[in-house]
Write a structure and sequence with these properties.
This protein is α/β, with parallel strands linked by helices and about 290 residues long. It has 14 helices and nine strands. Helix 10 (about 180-190) links the parallel strand 5 and strand 6.
Length: about 290
């Protein structure tokens, strides 16, 4: 079914939720033989979207697509593969196909997500410097979203001390976002692993990031939030982790700091307060 999933990923009119619905509700042997109009009817697509989907469906060429992916060293990870991460497999809405570049062996490692504000302060940078190295020494892969701020700095800290890091991005590989982190993106592909749920030519859309966040938390034993405003996207990742029955950790901050409002509220609501790496490890290794 990997080729069928790849075909569907190259039909951008088909959303992640719609693909999941097809996968859950239609027998796999029948999925392969469905015509695009049958898919459109089953999903109750509006006429304009249905026509667009049909065009995308017939435009797809498996051979040229596979050649392009091979030339760019992009690998495919299907939910049917033995090396697909078990923690992801447990989700209600797991990513059915991931595009990957880097070291696939990291999929089998234990992982911790670290996310936070795009408006990182010096305090946030100090926290990351304090926590990432001892966490990497525990053989944890640091997972984040390669966003500006806390995410990017978490990746950098892991790379600088020779640890392992994994990024899950909200765009395709050929349209990486945000462009300011391109150098870091390339460094992680060389010595870590980058994953995307989106076909390489897909550009970032605002709804991709909540979809991406469920993968970040879903890959990991727990999620650590470092600096987050009240309406931070990092809190979406924390909610995803809770819904996935994973551990949620937060670093406290000053009560007057905007970038601490979200993390302090998480702690009030039951997230574990973190001051040192052992605060995390004692929960993960129970």
């Amino acid at each position: 079914m990997k080729n069928w999933l790849l075909h569907m990923k190259y039909c951008p009119s088909l959303s992640v939720k719609q693909l999941s619905k097809l996968w859950r509700e239609i027998p796999k042997d029948r999925l392969r033989s469905l015509a695009p109009n049958e898919i459109a009817v089953f999903l109750e697509m509006p006429e304009e979207r249905s026509e667009r989907f049909k065009q995308e469906f017939y435009h797809f060429n498996l051979v040229s697509t596979m050649n392009e992916l091979d030339n760019r060293e992009i690998q495919l990870v299907s939910i049917e593969d033995d090396y697909y991460p078990q923690l992801l497999r447990e989700l209600y809405d797991p990513p059915l196909l991931l595009f990957a570049r880097g070291d696939l062996e990291l999929l089998a490692w234990e992982k911790l997500a670290i996310v936070g504000t795009r408006k990182m302060t010096e305090y946030g940078k100090q926290i990351l410097h304090h926590l990432v190295e001892p966490l990497c020494k525990e053989s944890l892969v640091i997972v984040s979203g390669l966003a500006t701020g806390i995410d990017a700095q978490a990746h950098r800290e892991a790379l600088e001390i020779g640890g392992k890091t994994m990024a899950v991005i909200g765009s395709g590989f050929f349209n990486f976002y945000p462009g300011e982190n391109m150098e870091l993106f390339e460094a992680i592909m060389k010595s870590g692993l980058v994953l995307s749920e989106y076909a390489p030519h897909v550009t970032a859309r605002k709804w991709h990031f909540p979809e991406r966040n469920r993968i970040i938390s879903g890959l990991c034993l727990g999620t650590l939030i470092i600096q987050a405003e009240k309406r931070s996207g990092s809190l979406i990742t924390a909610d995803a982790a809770l819904n996935q029955n994973r551990e949620v950790f937060a670093v406290p901050g000053g009560i007057f700091g905007l970038s601490s409002a979200g993390t302090n509220k998480l702690i009030q609501e039951g997230a574990k307060l973190v001051m040192d790496a052992p605060d995390i490890m004692e929960e993960l290794r129970q």
